[in-house]
Design goal:
mainly alpha
């Protein structure tokens, strides 16, 4: 189970690095993806189920990670928030995403891109 969770977290870290790359080099595409958040039940599930699985993997690996308490709390928070995002009305979730997609400047997207990359690298190290 611990090995499976590690591979799940490796995939999640790869996704974070890819997201950082997209934000740095294609910020308008990143904002377009944000606008499409929760536009259908299928898209919402495609977003939230992998997120929920990654959160569960964090909780499973907590005891062997470099930051056990953080992994346990963050993993359970990610699982709970994913479940919540699966059950709230799509218009609420999408409305929130569109609100931010219309307000974040491209320079702001580029500015936080390194944080996503560092988060992915940090996740691999900490797991």
């Amino acid at each position: 189970m611990l090995i499976t969770a590690w591979f799940v977290l490796l995939a999640a870290a790869g996704w974070l690095v890819w997201t950082g790359w997209l934000m740095a080099f294609r910020p308008s595409s990143a904002l377009d993806l944000l606008r499409r958040t929760a536009t259908s039940h299928r898209i919402n599930a495609i977003e939230q189920v992998p997120r929920l699985i990654a959160g569960a993997a964090m909780a499973v690996r907590a005891e062997v990670s470099h930051f056990p308490q953080f992994f346990a709390v963050a993993g359970l928070f990610i699982v709970a928030s994913s479940v919540l995002l699966l059950i709230i009305p799509l218009r609420w979730h999408n409305g929130y995403a569109v609100f931010w997609a219309e307000r974040i400047p491209l320079a702001g997207v580029r500015a936080v891109a390194p944080l996503a990359v560092l988060g992915g690298i940090g996740l691999i190290w900490a797991a």
